[in-house]
Design brief:
The complex is a heterodimer. Chain A is an all-alpha fold. Helix content of chain A is about 75%, strand content about 0%. By secondary structure, chain B is mainly α. Classes of the chains: A mainly alpha, B mainly alpha.
């Protein structure tokens, strides 16, 4: 009876989560699929040949730009989030609640508002329509997000190990590289993966600051949706979703409540 | 999160690195957030108040805000956005309670992993998938034809670009259920077992146990998570842009349309609408934080 209920719950979860992927995968593999057929008339790799050869340069460039923006954003975010997360996770101090709200807001307030405000200023600084400008606006939410992940990591971190290393004569630098970093490495990877993912999924702020010059994958996908080629849009969607699934696979266990709030 | 009470205790008794030490650790990150996020919003407010570079600050005022707030289209957009965010959140919250109760004692790691997939899938991809699923010539419509329920795409109910934002709401419900559910599950796992046993020995029925034991326990987490979801859906752009109607638009789409208008005079109005969105979102976030803090003060594990 109970086992049966569990099986039903599991089945419901799999069906509900899987349903939207069905048309995506079918369209990406369909050569011909006319209404009202429930199943494609013929399968083939036309969409994939198209995005790797005819439009290959464009798609590859978009993947490259998305990767570059997301990777640099993630590296900067984590480099700054490690010390900040350490301060917030290890110590209690006045104004911690204020810092918490200050960091929660950028994660939830839509980047649209920030990007519209920054745009004019970025134009004058020569940052508009550049990778640097786009990375700057992506940092506004990726960095606070990474801080929340590392805050959780450092809350469970025992700094006594550092004292032991120090009493054995380790220098400050060696304590960081040989004790702290190895201990928090899983947390750092999760923070980096999700900072990467937040940047990777970002559309509107990239469009506003990048001005159509910084052609990331979501910007290209929107353009493709306008063109109406369903197999190609489906194929690009599947490429676009891959890092999201990879990130989840490697980090499902490490995510805490604070970090969940910001995964978009 | 599970051992948060203990962590805070550790943090309180640990000798701090002093003000200087804390500053060194926190300053770079906070500076970036303050300059880019705070600065972006501040510059937005200034532009919405009529600031133009080179024109000086002399003519600052609320005229653009007034124009936006009195625009009848703004009220329609605001109502639509509030409706979409509210209904999405309510449906997601209701289903999340069911999901949490169903998953609480389910140990299969695979089911839990699959359940979390929607968390990381970009909204844009879900929107594209829903379009393929729900459009008049989409997969569901084909299924209805195959079953003999309808004759052609014209008979299929309009679920995309429709009056009621059904496609948009479905995307948000699909995306947000895991988030709310995981927040509830975290609370359910840590407390309530014994109380439910007490309830059972006192002969409380399943509904009574849910209404008087489970619901009060999960309420703060549920409310806080729902507020976050509401805030997010209120300010999100991609999904209504792709699946919504051209009129009325949701507020973020309205703001962006004005901002990117060829008529540069519409720009400050777009930014002003953006600031209004930011205010609504910030209010929801602060409310969520206050709820969480109040619940923690009462000794709840959140």
């Amino acid at each position: 009876m109970k086992a049966c209920r569990y099986r039903l719950t599991g089945l419901a979860v799999v069906l509900a989560v899987g349903l939207p992927f069905v048309p995506l995968v079918l369209w990406a593999l369909a050569d011909r699929w006319f209404f009202p057929a429930l199943w494609p008339q013929s399968f083939g790799l036309r969409a994939w040949t198209y995005i790797t050869s005819t439009a290959g340069v464009q798609v590859l460039a978009a993947v490259g730009q998305s990767m570059a923006v997301a990777a640099i954003t993630a590296v900067i975010a984590v480099a700054m989030a490690v010390p900040a997360g350490r301060a917030l996770g290890l110590y209690e101090f006045k104004g911690k609640d204020l810092v918490s709200i200050l960091l929660t807001l950028p994660v939830i307030v839509p980047p649209l508002c920030v990007a519209m405000g920054l745009h004019l200023w970025f134009i004058r600084l020569g940052l508009a329509e550049t990778l640097g400008g786009v990375i700057g606006v992506h940092l506004t939410f990726s960095l606070p997000y990474a801080i929340f992940v590392l805050w959780g990591v450092f809350a469970n971190y025992n700094p006594d190990f550092e004292d032991q290393a120090r009493s054995l004569g380790a220098s400050r630098f060696r304590v960081i590289t040989r004790v702290m970093l190895p201990m928090i490495l899983p947390g750092i990877s999760v923070a980096a993966l999700f900072a990467f993912l937040l940047s990777w999924s970002q559309y509107l702020s990239t469009l506003i600051i990048g001005g159509g010059r910084v052609m990331t994958l979501p910007v290209l996908l929107f353009a493709l949706m306008g063109s109406g080629d369903r197999p190609v849009a489906a194929a690009v969607s599947l490429v676009f979703v891959t890092p999201a699934l990879v990130a989840l696979f490697f980090s499902a266990r490490y995510l805490g409540a604070r970090s969940l709030a910001g995964v978009r | 999160m599970i051992s948060r009470a203990r962590q805070d205790l550790d943090a309180r008794t640990r000798p701090g690195p002093g003000f200087k030490g804390l500053t060194v650790l926190l300053a770079p990150a906070l500076a970036i957030v303050l300059v880019l996020f705070g600065g972006g919003l501040a510059l937005g407010v200034m532009q919405a108040m009529g600031y133009l570079p080179g024109a000086g600050l002399g003519r600052l005022g609320f005229q653009h805000f007034a124009q936006v707030l009195t625009d009848p289209d703004f009220a329609t957009s605001f109502a639509l956005t509030f409706y979409v965010a509210g209904v999405s959140t309510a449906i997601a919250a209701g289903l999340s309670i069911l999901a949490a109760l169903g998953l609480a004692s389910l140990r299969s790691r695979w089911v839990h992993f699959i359940f979390q997939i929607p968390l990381t899938v970009p909204h844009l991809v879900v929107a594209v998938a829903m379009l393929f699923l729900l459009a008049p010539a989409g997969l569901l419509s084909r299924g209805a034809v195959a079953l003999g329920l309808i004759a052609g795409p014209a008979d299929f109910p309009l679920l995309i670009n429709d009056n009621w934002g059904i496609g948009i709401i479905l995307v948000y419900v699909w995306k947000e259920i895991p988030f709310i559910t995981l927040m509830i599950l975290a609370v359910l796992r840590n407390s309530g077992r014994e109380l439910l046993d007490v309830g059972r020995t006192l002969k409380a029925g399943p509904w009574q146990r849910f209404r008087h034991i489970t619901l009060p326990i999960i309420f703060p987490a549920l409310a806080a998570a729902s507020l976050i979801v509401f805030a997010f859906t209120f300010g999100a752009f991609e999904v209504p842009y792709l699946l919504g109607r051209t009129y009325p638009m949701t507020l973020p789409v309205w703001a962006y349309k004005h901002y990117s208008d060829i008529d540069l005079l519409a720009r400050p109005e777009g930014i002003a609408a953006g600031i209004v969105i930011a205010l609504v979102v910030a209010t929801a976030v602060v409310l969520a934080q206050m709820l969480t803090r109040a619940a923690r003060k009462k000794g709840m594990v959140l």
